[in-house]
């Protein structure tokens, strides 16, 4: 049988990204947390953490984290049936991985009512939509929102819709780089804006016009900063339509090529044995996502 105090220590170290913060959350000394991790490793016969900065789970550590995530959710179901078991009366917490653009646009409106009703607290882990599933695979989150359709073993995925992105730039940028009108062949030689190394939206836009992937670009790992740089004329970039309705209306940003958006599908992934809370959240998202996302 598992000693869930040891598993809780493992989960806290990974979720809080350090032994020190894990100790604060658990109300223990840092030495006590370290001892629990060592005892867990002795019982499973191999390391569960790589002592890096931040600590990362090993393969067996990820499997244990997946297990403890699901146990927490199932315990919540049991507490609902036997209220006396809920000694602390604390709200449930879920760690969810999602892309910065969803977090900065439609996500709050989609989940706020649910979180209030369910007394649910969310820990948001921001990852690009193309790689968010790796957090769930690592056992760090109970669910994720990403562009990957194929679920992990033991998990389900459901298509919520797509985020529509448009290639935008400031009027000044367009006048400077395309004085005679937009010419696609010139685009790779004009500065672009890229959110991070896992952001391939600009690559997709160029590929859709038959252009090579290589292009000049600034890196800007901030959703708000990305838009500010675009408005300042530093580069062109793929921006969520939901985020720039006002900018398009007032003319501070213009579409590089009208009627040529890129739609990114968003799939909601969650564990099959994640309990009723995750099932209800999934239904809530499926019923309400069409208000913000483009149907596919």
Number of helices: 12
End-to-end separation: 46 Å
From the 3D coordinates, which CATH architecture of the domain at 163-263 would you assign?
Answer: 3-Layer(aba) Sandwich
Which blocks of ≥5 consecutive residues have pLDDT under 50?
none
Question: Could you report the average pLDDT, rounded to the nearest whole number?
Answer: 89
Order of helices and strands: HHHEEHEHHEHEEHEHEHEHEEH
CATH homologous superfamily identity of the domain at 163-263: Periplasmic binding protein-like II
Rg over CA atoms? 22 Å
User: Which range does the strand content fall in?
Assistant: 15-25%
| CATH class designation of the domain at 163-263 | Alpha Beta
Strand runs, count: 11
Shape: elongated
Structural class: alpha/beta
Stated plainly, the CATH topology of the domain at 163-263 is called D-Maltodextrin-Binding Protein, domain 2
The proportion of residues forming helix, as a percent range, comes to 40-55%
Biggest sheet overview = 7 strands, mixed
């Amino acid at each position: 049988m598992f000693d869930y105090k040891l598993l809780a220590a493992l989960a806290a170290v990974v979720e809080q990204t350090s032994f020190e913060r894990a100790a604060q959350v658990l109300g223990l000394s840092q030495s006590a947390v370290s001892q629990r991790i060592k005892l867990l490793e002795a019982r499973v016969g191999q390391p569960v953490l790589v002592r890096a900065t931040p600590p990362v789970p090993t393969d067996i550590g990820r499997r244990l984290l997946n297990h403890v995530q699901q146990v927490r959710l199932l315990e919540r179901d049991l507490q609902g049936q036997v209220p006396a078991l809920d000694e602390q009366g604390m709200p449930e917490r879920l760690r969810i991985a999602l892309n910065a653009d969803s977090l900065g646009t439609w996500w709050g409106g989609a989940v706020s009512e649910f979180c209030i009703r369910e007394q649910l607290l969310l820990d948001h882990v921001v990852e690009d939509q193309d790689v968010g599933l790796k957090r769930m695979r690592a056992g760090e989150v109970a669910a994720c929102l990403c562009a990957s359709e194929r679920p992990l073993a033991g998990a389900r995925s459901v298509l919520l819709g797509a985020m529509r992105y448009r290639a935008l730039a400031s009027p000044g940028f367009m006048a400077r780089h395309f004085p005679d009108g937009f010419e696609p062949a010139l685009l790779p030689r004009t500065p672009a804006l890229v959110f991070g190394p896992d952001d391939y939206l600009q690559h997709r836009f160029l590929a859709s016009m038959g252009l090579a992937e290589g292009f000049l670009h600034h890196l800007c790992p901030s959703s708000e900063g990305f838009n500010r740089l675009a408005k300042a004329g530093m580069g062109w970039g793929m921006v969520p339509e939901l985020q720039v309705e006002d900018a398009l209306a007032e003319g501070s940003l213009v579409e590089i090529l009208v009627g040529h958006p890129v739609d990114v599908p968003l799939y909601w992934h969650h564990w099959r044995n994640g309990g009723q809370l995750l099932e209800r959240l999934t239904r809530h998202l499926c019923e309400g996502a069409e208000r913000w996302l483009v149907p596919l």
